[in-house]
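From the shared-data thread, chain only:
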Amino acid sequence: MEVLYDDNHIIIVSKNSSEIVQGDKTGDKPLSETVAAWIKEKYCEPGNVFVGVTHRLDRPVSGVVVFAKTGKALSRLNDMFRDGNVSKRYLAIVKNLPPKPEGELTHWLVRNEKQNRSYAYDSEKPGSKKAVLKYRLLGSSVNYHLLEVELLTGRHHQIRCQLAKMGCPIKGDLKYGAERSNPDASISLHAYCVSFEHPVSHKRITVYAPIPGDSLWQSFRDVIPQETPATLSE
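Structure, as tokens:
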């Protein structure tokens, strides 16, 4: 586990594509427990360690995850994520070139719980939720294209669903139209950056997660906006 930022109230880590953020029916060890164990060891904490889940990433997605270390921070971060006061930027590798180099996508998403997927529509439908994101093309290789995505709403599988609706399914995402899976069962979607006002100090926190190490991701390194690592607390 790579810790990107750590202080008395929050801890921000980089998630691998194979990890789950919070416990589920698989019974696999969640990232929240790994974080708790790290805190307990580093700070020699007696008893149970508080780790609050503020948001989630789908299992096959890598990147930044923010956890709360206190109840006060958890409550305030939950409000900030719900109210859209956390800036979230992602990187997505797609097979098809988008119709425009940049744009804003607005759809109405309907979630199918049984299938664990969402469907995007151009107009409002019964039970749908409005989904909005911005994207821009950062670079292209012979076979793939790298998009930066800014989420303006937070819906189930929003980026995966909306990019597929645009005709640009994410590499490896069989559920939303990719031709084949990635060897490690990941999808080529990376939560690259979060930026928000610290829930207690009220200072601006901006944290970037290093891109995955495989050769395709690394081939796009030069076109990715400059990473500015956050400073770890002592």
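The chain has a mean pLDDT of 94.
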